[in-house]
Amino acid sequence: MIGDDDSSKSLYRWRMPESLYLHIWQTFWKPPRPLFLYLAHLAVHIGNFYKPLEAPAEVISKFKYIEDINRRIQAAMTSVLDDSVGAVFKALHAKNMLDNSIILFVSDNGGEVNPEFGGHASNYPLRGKKQTFWEGGIHLPALIWSPLLNLDEPRISEQLMHVTDWLPTLYRAGGGDPADLGPMDGVDMWDAFLGGSPSPRTEMLQNLDPIYGVSALRMGDMKLVNGSTGEGFDFWYGPSGLDNFTEHTSYDWVFKESSPVEDVLRENGMWIAQDPDEVYQRNRIKCKKPVPEEAYSSCKPTEKPCLFNITEDPCEYVNLADIYPDMVKMMMDKIIEYNATAMEPQFKPKDHRADPMCHHFYYVPWLEPEHYTECDYAS
């Protein structure tokens, strides 16, 4: 929460982005010009060390059935994010823009599970967490919705895709030729989306960190991991919170208080998820439980690279490096090739004057004259 200068009011910071976003859009956009909107939401990111998790009390109270208070707040933060998505969707509907819109909902990294960092997320049953190269850190939720996809029913994509692919894909969907953009790392996925065909991407560099000596590479079904970030969270941390959900209760639970998105889509004859539970169940990642004992010891990436078939083994239980040494060598050679063109990290030192505690708990351009202060709270 943040307050104004006289502390007589407070505003939940994570409700501000869509309000500002909608104000700018509705004030300055002039149709029929094309429009690109990007909303980088703060929720459900952890906050500062003195208040890592925060949500409005009335939202937290909706999740009293979650015993762990930190997980309860995490759920409330997710709920606020969900409300924000609904607000943006309704605004697009009010402007009669849905028929010609492409809407993406994409996460940037896996959740933080280390309580020392304020993390109470869950990536289970996937391995690892945020800031690791395991699937729990990089295998992320992503959704694309658009009438332009011409779908009669929801489709679960198994196509390999990297964040850099969005630029040429959206440029193509908007009528442009990605070749006009010049050399780039991304590949155009639009035809693959329309036809459900295999991804044109067959290779993906997933990590190349010269500070920790960490690297990870995906080629087809195979993934190579080499080194560790030193986070100490290289295993499996659960539960997911979904273990007590049955196939026919999750939909009622999610939509029990209605959904603005569903309401709009049904009103316009665009709701194609006839059985959301069936889609949800197909989309869940399911792995053997409990984690096999040998999975903890078979891969020691700080000693030598590990190899996994991610398609068959998304939870990274079975290290295949000793079975396919030629594949390991080929993939390590490719990593060396990538590394030859990598640039040195350009980190800036921390500036304690930027700490929100120095600015009434706001993030501001702290070097500007109106905000400058020699505050030393965090020094």
CATH top level assignment of the largest domain: Alpha Beta
Order of helices and strands: EEHHHEHEHHEEEHHHHEH
Q: What is the end-to-end distance?
A: 24 Å
Largest sheet: 4 strands, antiparallel
Put simply, the count of helices is 11
The CATH architecture classification of the largest domain is 3-Layer(aba) Sandwich
Structure description:
This protein is an alpha+beta fold and 379 residues long. It folds into three domains: 17-159 and 237-289, Alkaline Phosphatase, subunit A, CATH 3.40.720.10; 202-235 and 291-347, 2-Layer Sandwich (Arylsulfatase, C-terminal domain); 350-378, no CATH class. Helix content is 27%, strand content 9%. The chain has helices at 16-28, 57-60, 69-94, 135-138, 166-173, 190-195, 250-254, 260-267, 276-283, 293-297, 325-339; strands at 2-3, 10-11, 103-106, 142-145, 203-209, 214-219, 222-226, 306-309. Strands 5-6-7-8 form a four-stranded antiparallel sheet, with helices on one face. Strands 1-2 form a two-stranded antiparallel ribbon. Mean pLDDT is 85; it is low at 1-10.
Per-chain topology:
Layout: E1 2-3, E2 10-11, H1 16-28, H2 57-60, H3 69-94, E3 103-106, H4 135-138, E4 142-145, H5 166-173, H6 190-195, E5 203-209, E6 214-219, E7 222-226, H7 250-254, H8 260-267, H9 276-283, H10 293-297, E8 306-309, H11 325-339
Antiparallel strand pairs: 1-2, 3-4, 5-6, 6-7, 7-8
